[in-house]
Amino acid sequence: MAAAGASVSAARSPGAPAGTEARVRRPPPARPSRLPPLLVLLAAAAGPGAGGAARLYRAGEDAVWVLDSGSVRGATANSSAAWLVQFYSSWCGHCIGYAPTWRALAGDVRDWAAAIRVAALDCAEEKNHEVCRAYEIHFYPTFRYFKAFAKDFTTGEDFKGPDREPQTVRHTMIDFLQSHTDEGRPPGCPSLNAIRPRDVLSLIDNSSGRYVAVLFESNSSYVGREVILDLIPYENIEVKRALGWDKAFLQKLGVSSVPSCYLIYPNGSHGLVTVGKPLRSFFSSYLKSLPDVRKKSLSLPEKPSRADNSEAVLWREFDRSKLYVADLESGLHHLLRVELAARRSLAGAELKTLKDFVTVLAKLLPGRPPVRKLLETLQEWLASLPLDRIPYDAVLDLVNNKMRISGIFLTNHIKWVGCQGSRPELRGYTCSLWKLFHTLTVRAGTHPKALDGTGFEDDPQAVLQTIRRYVHIFFGCKECGEHFEEMAKESMDSVKTPDQAILWLWKKHNVVNSRLAGHPSEDPKFPKVPWPTPDLCPACHEEIKGLTSWNEGQVLLFLKRHYGSDNLEDTYSSDLGDTGEGAPATGEERAGGHASPEQPPADRGAESLRPPGVPAPRPRLSERSHQGLDVKLESLSGAEGRRGAGAGAAFLGTGFSSLDMSLCVVLYVASSLFLMVMYFFFRVRSKRWKVKHHHPSV
Ligand SMILES: Cc1cc2nc3c(=O)[nH]c(=O)nc-3n(C[C@H](O)[C@H](O)[C@H](O)COP(=O)(O)OP(=O)(O)OC[C@H]3O[C@@H](n4cnc5c(N)ncnc54)[C@H](O)[C@@H]3O)c2cc1C
């Protein structure tokens, strides 16, 4: 990775935006799709005690505590130590770039574990997405503090610091520890408060039989508190801090500058410590190496067993000149079931953006009929909603349950093909999102009537503006969204035709490529170069007066071909819908394709209702069914609604929709009535017959 990064930086011209007139071109990359056939990547994925996997951090190898859905609540609730948890997403470039810093920080404060622990939880792991939702994580990375001995569930306190440099984070950790009450302070955390002059004198006068170090420092210094925490696991020594008082007192002890360390030895002798530099590391190291100062055992993140530690991911051969249905559908699955599902409910601008984005998807996304039908139904349903706030569970219920019985479904498997990364944390979702966006702008350019009747017709910016709002509001990578917004502010208004919209997105994507070249999130097998590369589109590249430049007319033609429906490859996607649609999956499909053990039984049951193979989708839901959904939704607003939606989902987990159940009841009542009518009819007839043929008096 480092070597690739170095070569990338060397070939890049930092100032020149790629995708514009002139640029420095890098040598064409080796064809990345030609990795050894069926290469099995052993992606070591670490787990917490519970054995879960996280892609950027490895429990037992890093000092970071790796949490997951099974361990986060147990770890942070009523804990004897405070926690600083980074909720990240392994596909987020900023999280990937920040991971070395977080690891270094965790290693740096490893000895503070009895007081405060540095942890990480991967929200891109689908098994974690419910828990990330519960903690209200909308963007990545999000840093939250959790106090020791928190009794009730809490979403934690946001990290507040001017930057995320290790020193800043360390200082905020100390501030956070000091915000505990005396009773609530972690028992393993010594007092971080400064002592008074007379306390120093009494320490000197009354030897405790062990070392006592007093750090004299200024009010704004954190050195004393850092050294106190660094020495937590060490026996036979106690560290105190004292703020610089009057010069006379300090001079008496021989202290001429702060920070300085004054040491009282176990035998009662005392004196000023001389270190090379008055820094935390120098003081800590000196004190740790004193005779008879020993380290106690430390609670550290557990290393998972080997069996838990690896997962095999099958490499899929693919053609870089093709677009894969599997990438688009996997991306859509993540978008609908994970990214948007981070919101409990949607209202105002969020709801409007969801509606517009689904409209654009429904009208423009090519693909398999069940997925198109699902988007169409979702769009009609959202458009018909009279509510100004909807619980997102209702959307999930529709996507996961209501339409499955009709054969309208979206895969719940993640299966990257053209978006595979050479490591599990690389590429994937963000790659598929770009592909989805390009496909939408191209389709709007090649099918000018597609948006008729939506309110977006005749607006060449409609698709771009909808993408912009989606990225701004929902895209989990906040910094990515901010960068994209800057680019949009700068020039999106200049787009006057659908073709310009296609080219705008292409240019801006190349700007992002150029910015990220050499970044830790760059996959060495898929280097960030101006795209399309000459081997993909020779006609797109020209040389004018010795400078390489784009032929934008050819680029436009290429993009229309590349992102057009004729270039859509169904390979690898035929089995996407074969198992367990509806419920969230557990990330990238494992080699062997076993059904997820977390898949709810209800879904497996519903599966048996559908014949194998891709079923023919039924016609769209009738007006009546929409009304039914609306009525249900009206009772769903607010917290109660959420509970209702949850219950609805469970009930519908049998595979029957509420419409189906209502029809059953109606049919049942109708047939009972019919039988009763028949019964009375024949009784009356038989009575009449008896009267007619029975004349005992005659
Ligand atoms: C809107 C948006 C903004 C982002 N901003 C950031 C950011 O600020 N920082 C960050 O770290 N990450 C950012 N990302 C993620 C980043 O751009 C990549 O998606 C990620 O690094 C994975 O890269 P990749 O190799 O899969 O290729 P990607 O850049 O994801 O591209 C996916 C595929 O699109 C095609 N492609 C490449 N370039 C173009 C182009 N110019 N036009 C059309 N098609 C193209 C190629 O086939 C490529 O494989 C952003 C993602 C999105 C969707």
Automatic annotation (TrEMBL):
GO terms for molecular function: flavin-dependent sulfhydryl oxidase activity; protein disulfide isomerase activity. One of its GO terms (biological process) is protein folding. Gene3D superfamilies: ERV/ALR sulfhydryl oxidase domain, Glutaredoxin, QSOX sulfhydryl oxidase domain. Keywords: Disulfide bond, FAD, Flavoprotein, Glycoprotein, Membrane, Oxidoreductase, Signal, Transmembrane, Transmembrane helix. Pfam families: Evr1_Alr, FAD_SOX, QSOX_Trx1, Thioredoxin. SUPFAM superfamilies: FAD-dependent thiol oxidase, Thioredoxin-like. Its EC number is 1.8.3.2. Residues 35-179 form the Thioredoxin domain. Residues 1-32, 570-629 are annotated as: Disordered. It catalyses: 2 R'C(R)SH + O2 = R'C(R)S-S(R)CR' + H2O2. InterPro entries: ERV/ALR_sulphydryl_oxid_sf, ERV/ALR_sulphydryl_oxidase, QSOX_FAD-bd_dom, QSOX_FAD-bd_sf, QSOX_Trx1, Sulfhydryl_oxidase, Thioredoxin-like_sf, Thioredoxin_domain. GO terms for cellular component: extracellular space; Golgi membrane; nucleoplasm. The chain crosses the membrane at residues 665-682. Residues 422-531 form the ERV/ALR sulfhydryl oxidase domain. It is an enzyme of class 1 (oxidoreductase). Its cofactor is FAD. Residues 1-19 have a biased composition (Low complexity). Residues 620-629 have a biased composition (Basic and acidic residues). Belongs to the quiescin-sulfhydryl oxidase (QSOX) family. Catalyzes the oxidation of sulfhydryl groups in peptide and protein thiols to disulfides with the reduction of oxygen to hydrogen peroxide. This is Sulfhydryl oxidase. It comes from Physeter macrocephalus (Sperm whale).
